Amino acid sequence: MKGLISYTINVGGRLMDLSEPQVMGILNATPDSFYAGSRVRTEDEIAARADRIMAEGGAIIDVGAYSTRPGAARVDADEEMSRMRTALRAVRRVQPDAPLSVDTFRPEVARMAVEEFGAGIINDVSGGNPGGSFGGEQLTEEAYCGGDGDASLPMFAVAARLRVPYVLMSSRPNLLSVLDDLSLKVQMLRDLGVRDIILDPGFGFGKTLDENYALLAALRRLDIMGLPLLVGVSRKSMVSRLIGTDADGSLAGTLAANVLALVLGGASVLRVHDVRQCVEAVTIVKETMKYV
Predict the structure, then answer these.
(1) Phi–psi pair at 237, nearest 5 degrees
(2) Which of residues 143 and 65 earns the better pLDDT score?
(3) Least packed by Cβ within 10 Å: which of 70, 231, 282, 285?
(4) Are 126 and 137 in contact (CB under 8 A)?
(5) SS3 for 166?
(6) Largest CA-CA distance found in the chain, in angstroms, rounded
(7) 32 and 67 in contact (C-beta within 8 Å)?
């Protein structure tokens, strides 16, 4: 497909080509994710969801155990760790070789997922913020990267030590601030030795409705970073609010936004709840773009 960055990432010792759009299926092992249809709790439900993601054409299973929707209850590290272990155990029982992404802002959870279950990607919605996904102002480089011998390493240092691809998200409100945020942190990650970085502009995080769509329209300008993009708009309020519905009624809007992310922005990874429908949309876009 024309326009996508030629880029491969090493996921668990296997190269994944991101010059072709990849679909990442969401698996939420939580009781309170914003889209009720995505929640799975029991090990059998989790295993069935993992099987479905792969059967419908998903390339990556993204496992989360902490809801980041506005107003969600905070969950302590022990509870997130317990949920994540249960989920990953169930996934690996039925999909022992599937590429896994771990959706967490806690370094200790990421380390466990990689070391115990072979998760191949860290998907960190906090952008490495030591305060977690609800962290505040940008801090010093040492806070993001850690000092020598630090027993409780921040996420950037953990990603470097684990040698896995890292999804770097920004909660800044507009294109220029997102670029500024990402460029600074990409350099920190490079200095630590992180080789594979995927950028996430953070749709729905720290942005108004208008800012989300302005960023979607300008997504191609992130090409200046020379790194692949992950776009996560699936059933978010930026879709449902605009078309006057809720998460349950936002599938069509989600598909439209994902197609725009591919065509206008050259997105490499689409993080979605509805894998089959998104894979079909990607197929149509790829075939059409052959002739553009």
Answers:
(1) -65, -25
(2) 65
(3) 70
(4) no
(5) strand
(6) 54
(7) yes
Check if the beta carbon of residue 3 is closer than 8 Å to that of residue 249. Answer: no
251: its two tokens: 């599938």
**Vertex 104: Cα angle to 99 and 106 (nearest 5):** 130
pLDDT value of residue 250: 97
> What does the pLDDT look like over 126-185, one tens digit per residue?
999 887 766 556 678 888 888 655 557 899 999 999 999 999 999 999 999 999 999 999
HSE of 275 in the Cβ direction (CA atoms, 13 Å)? 21
Per-residue H/E/C for 189-256: HHHHCCCCEEEECCCCCCCCHHHHHHHHHCHHHHHHHCCCEEECCCCCHHHHHHHCCCHHHCHHHHHH
Residues 160 and 188: their CA atoms lie apart, in Å, by 10
Determine if the pTM surpasses 0.85. yes
3-state class (DSSP) for residue 84:
helix
Q: How far apart are CA 109 and CA 78, in angstroms?
A: 9
pLDDT digits (tens, 9 = 90+) for 66-113: 977 666 577 889 999 999 999 999 999 999 999 999 999 999 999 999
Say how far apart CA 71 and CA 74 lie, in whole Å: 9
The amino acid at 161: R
Provide the annotated active-site residues. 236, 271
Higher pLDDT pick, 251 / 150: 251
Where would I find the H helices in the chain?
43-55, 77-94, 107-117, 141-145, 155-162, 175-192, 209-217, 237-243, 251-263, 275-289
